Inverse folding.
């Protein structure tokens, strides 16, 4: 009976040491999960900002095509915008814009009519 008690105590002691040793690892893991959630949140904000048609138009289009409210190219479709970027030398520098970004620009141009 004494040997069983001693074994149980030793098992408890080993368990305590394991728990103490793993506790910092557990907290680091939890902190990492919070950082990952913040990163996902930041990525969502960036994606939303990337698809803000008004800001995209202002940044990429307004220098040549006037302010959005006064644009000389109203109601352009996504297909037409993409085609112009591909085929007009003056717009080739915009080839880095994604289709989703061009769609956001087209949608805001339609809503301004």
């Amino acid at each position: 009976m004494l040997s069983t008690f001693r074994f149980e105590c030793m098992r408890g002691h080993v368990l305590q040491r394991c728990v103490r040793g793993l506790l910092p690892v557990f907290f680091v893991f939890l902190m990492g999960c919070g950082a990952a959630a913040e990163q996902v949140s930041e990525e969502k904000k960036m994606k939303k900002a990337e698809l803000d048609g008004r800001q995209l138009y202002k940044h990429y289009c307004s220098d040549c095509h006037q302010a959005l409210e006064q644009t000389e190219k109203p109601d352009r479709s996504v297909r037409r915008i993409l085609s112009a970027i591909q085929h007009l030398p003056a717009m080739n520098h915009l080839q880095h814009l994604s289709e989703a970004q061009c769609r956001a620009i087209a949608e805001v141009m339609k809503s301004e009519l």
